[in-house]
Amino acid sequence: MQIYVGNLVFTATADDVRQLFEPYGDVARVHLPEDRETGRPRGFGFVEMPDATEAQAAIGGLNGTSLGGPQLTVNEARPREERGGPRRGPRW
């Protein structure tokens, strides 16, 4: 199950997030997206846990807690929406 983690402090590392989730079960992957232009963390991330029961326990146990900053938002990740915005470049 993919889990969304919001309100991460910019100094949080993938290892920090992994250690936060591991008491709840096996953590298969942690991904902390970075800004394309600056390379700085974007303040959110995704955790993949193979066992849905463990993932739900992590969501319930960690939502509203803190990792050295504001309260975390922890919930099941939603599928990424398609971006159907305007095209770049001139229109002919």
Characterization of the model:
This protein is α+β, with helices and mostly antiparallel strands and 92 residues long. The chain has a single domain (2-72), classed as 2-Layer Sandwich (Alpha-Beta Plaits), CATH 3.30.70. It has two helices and four strands; from the N terminus they run E-H-E-E-H-E. It has helices at 14-21, 52-62, and strands at 2-6, 29-31, 44-48, 73-76. The model has no long low-confidence stretch (mean pLDDT 91).
Backbone shape:
globular
The neighbouring-strand order within the major sheet is 2-3-1-4
CATH topology: Alpha-Beta Plaits
User: Structural class, from helix and strand content?
Assistant: alpha+beta
The total beta strand count reads: 4
- CATH class label: Alpha Beta
What's the rounded overall pLDDT mean?
Answer: 91
List low-confidence stretches.
Answer: none
Compressed to H and E, one letter per element, the order equals: EHEEHE
Annotated CATH homologous superfamily: RRM (RNA recognition motif) domain
Distance between the termini: 44 Å
